[in-house]
Design goal:
Strand content: under 5%
Order of helices and strands: HHHHHHHHHHHHHHHHH
Number of strands: 0
Length: about 350
């Protein structure tokens, strides 16, 4: 089957799946409910999340609700992968690595807090067949050194092994940053095997994502963590769209105001060109920028990989918004305060 016929099939499937996403009315209805229990009942009765949320007994356990919603995201990954073969299927498997990496981070933090890894079992999103390591072996690790050794035959070993005997306060932080860098390197590597037009599309998405994450990382590193420029450079992502190594180095050696001046001259000026709290809303601004870029894909979709990528990201942002709405209700935020934390712009929100 040629690529045009493959994408004709998958794009048709994606457009059907997209109809299951929440609309603005759903958002408003959720926010206007009296409590979290009513919100969950609404999601069960009116949305595609019914099956996952029917498993929840403790409706006040937002962490478990988030896990179940993210498991729905993984099931959508599976639906899409069935349409692809060879390098395209490998790309979507690589995208799923992020959830595996997030689980590895949970293990690292558990060791830092001296907690039992068994507690993390219920937080796993992936089916066992998707793991690139021996899940049972890793979960049975009794300490950090053994944990890293149990990853010896995986791509994670090289990223974590240099730190296994370190004891300083930032060691877990460094390992997490190395895992993130590894993930983006794997995406870049896998993208090289796509057809030319899809490679260009995917690497553009990847580049913009890395640009935004680098800005956030450098800004927070300078302002909140007092990190050395060398530390900042060490963990920047290398395949950004707008910033080459020379520019990233300049950003890392700048102060807070100099960094803002650099960014304000780019397409990412919205991160600092605002009267709203920069620190509080930076992550949401990044997500919202990407959300509307992916939303725009559906207006001009062609026979390429774009639509599949857009749908997965839109679904992920929707799940984040649902959790934000539930948490806002739980902690008594006003309607406007709730809207301010959402990725998707809802009528009445001023930004």
């Amino acid at each position: 089957m040629n690529s045009e016929r493959i994408f004709a099939a998958i794009n048709t499937k994606i457009r059907v799946l997209r109809t299951n996403l929440l609309d603005k009315k759903d958002y408003i209805n959720l926010m206007e409910k009296e409590n979290v229990e009513e919100q969950i009942h609404y999601l069960r009765e009116n949305t595609i999340y019914k099956e996952e949320l029917s498993k929840i007994e403790d409706l006040d356990n937002i962490q478990q609700i988030e896990i179940e919603l993210k498991r729905h995201l993984i099931s959508e990954f599976e639906k899409i992968m069935k349409y692809f073969t060879d390098e395209y299927r490998k790309l979507f498997r690589t995208l799923m690595l992020r959830h595996e990496i997030e689980e590895l981070k949970l293990y690292l933090r558990a060791f830092e807090r001296k907690e039992d890894l068994v507690k993390i079992e219920n937080l796993s999103l992936l089916k066992e067949k998707y793991y690139s390591f021996d899940l049972k072996k890793v979960r049975n690790s009794s300490n950090l050194e053994e944990f890293i050794e149990n990853l010896k035959d995986t791509m994670y070993y090289k990223a974590l092994n240099p730190y296994k005997n370190e004891e300083h306060s930032k060691v877990i932080f460094y390992m997490e940053m190395n895992l993130d860098r590894l993930y983006f390197n794997e995406l870049k590597s896998q993208s090289k095997n796509l057809k030319k037009e899809d490679k260009i599309i995917f690497e553009k998405i990847l580049g913009v994502n890395e640009d935004l994450l680098n800005i956030e990382w450098i800004y927070r590193g300078i302002k909140f963590y007092n990190l050395l420029p060398e530390e900042l450079i060490n963990f920047t992502l290398p395949y950004g769209s707008e910033f080459n190594y020379k520019k990233l180095k300049e950003m890392c050696y700048s102060n807070e105001e100099q960094l803002k001046e650099i960014v304000l001259k780019t397409q990412y000026d919205f991160l600092f060109d605002t009267e709203k709290d920069i620190d509080l809303y930076m992550e949401r601004r990044i997500q919202r920028y990407l959300y509307y870029r992916f939303l725009d894909v559906f207006k001009r979709a062609k026979m390429d990989i774009n639509l599949s990528m857009a749908y997965i990201h839109l679904l992920e942002y929707e799940i984040r918004d649902i959790i934000s709405i539930l948490e806002a209700k739980k902690y008594g935020l006003t309607l406007q305060e709730t809207k301010d934390y959402l990725v998707r712009k809802v009528e009445g929100s001023d930004e």
